[in-house]
Amino acid sequence: MNRYFKSAYLFGLLGGIMGLISFIVLTFLREDPTNLNLIFGYVIVPISLYLALRYFKDYTNSGYISFAEGMSVGFVTYMFIALLSFVGIWLILNLSPDLFELIKASKVQALIESKETIVSQVGTESYDATLESVQNMVKTDIAINDSIWKIIPGLFFTIIISIILRKNPN
């Protein structure tokens, strides 16, 4: 079983580290690094998944990979990326409470600036509930949100890449 996940751990670790590096770099460049970090996640996750699945196929499994093997290796890879992202961002925000307050203020300000548009689309009650939710946000919320946005595209890209790389020994 370990041979199935060697590449998943390796490239999951690489993807998680790259995600944290992007968060740290964006922290110095922007007030709220979370939104742009999600975009970098959409690049990092599929690249890490492709490398993990390709490595597994070429170097661990004699040039073959089934859809099920691809899904298994991909699942471990994107979950590892999400877990590292969660822990890293949570630690960064706990070590830098000022950064958390800047992110929170930026999100509240964005909601206030977009109030008319949001109210016209979803109504006043939904806007007020969202504003209250953002004002009550905690550090874990930011880390969980980033992790979720690594898992969702991770599943999507795992399916696609597993189909593309699939080659059975028959």
Task: Describe the SSE topology.
Elements: H1 2-29, H2 34-60, H3 67-95, H4 97-113, H5 115-122, H6 124-135, H7 139-165
Helix pairs in contact: 1-2, 1-3, 2-3, 2-7, 3-7, 4-6, 5-6
Give the overall silhouette. Answer: elongated
Helices and strands, in order, run as HHHHHHH
Relative helix content: over 70%
The major pleated sheet works out as: none
* The number of domains: 1
Total strands: 0
Radius of gyration: 19 Å
**What structural category arises from helix and sheet content?**
mainly alpha
- Overall mean pLDDT stands at 93
Distance between the termini: 22 Å
Count of alpha/pi helices: 7
**Uncertain spans, ≥5 residues at pLDDT below 50?**
none
β-strand amount:
under 5%
Keywords: Membrane, Transmembrane, Transmembrane helix
Protein name: DUF4199 domain-containing protein
InterPro entries: DUF4199
Transmembrane segments: 7-29, 35-53, 73-93, 147-165
What does the model show?
By secondary structure, the chain is an all-alpha fold. It has one domain. Helix content is 87%, strand content 0%. It contains seven helices and no strands. The chain has helices at 2-29, 34-60, 67-95, 97-113, 115-122, 124-135, 139-165. It holds the Pfam family DUF4199.
